[in-house]
Design brief:
- Helix content is about 50%, strand content about 10%.
- It is built from six helices and four strands; from the N terminus they run ααββαααββα.
- The two termini are about 25 Å apart.
Length: about 160
């Protein structure tokens, strides 16, 4: 039995610890629980295909609204930006357009949804947190380490 199957067969609390414990110890991923609530699951959540389609449609629609809003705010006068609570020091950054061909004003944005009684509700738009970058780096770092070990075993042969 490989390590992944061994972890998957553990009871849920032990599975969480096996997955997130080493990452927390290394200081890589320390937000598996937030505000004393489970934030990152230690198992897969099965989602109905129709609900997934609805979430994708909602994300695309909300993304278009977000993009239009960004363009309007970029062109706004200083009075509107101040009314929105945007600090004066941020005005130049808000009006900056990095790339005219970029289809979206964000690269790493993500809509978080909740489904309740068949209704999909957008909870928040995470456009400021690069969730996944730390995890992807750590995964790649682990892959490189494994590949280096594998290469060393080949050179010994």
């Amino acid at each position: 039995m490989n390590m992944n199957n061994k972890i998957a067969s553990l009871p849920y609390p032990e599975r969480r610890e096996a997955l997130y414990g080493p990452l927390k110890t290394e200081g890589v991923f320390v937000w598996d629980c937030m505000y004393e609530e489970e934030y990152a699951l230690a198992s897969l959540y099965k989602l109905d295909r129709e609900v997934l389609r609805q979430m994708r449609d909602a994300a695309e629609s909300l993304g278009r609204v977000f993009a239009k809003t960004v363009n309007i705010v970029r062109q706004a006068d200083d009075a509107l930006l101040l009314e929105l609570g945007i600090p004066l020091a941020a005005f130049a950054a808000i009006r900056l357009q990095v790339n005219d061909t970029m289809p979206s004003p964000t690269v790493i944005g993500r809509f978080d949804f909740a489904v309740n009684n068949g209704q999909i509700k957008m909870l928040e738009f995470n456009s400021d947190t690069p969730t996944g970058i730390v995890e992807a780096f750590t995964s790649m770092e682990s892959c490189v380490t494994l590949m280096e070990q594998w290469i060393r075993t080949l050179t010994v042969l």
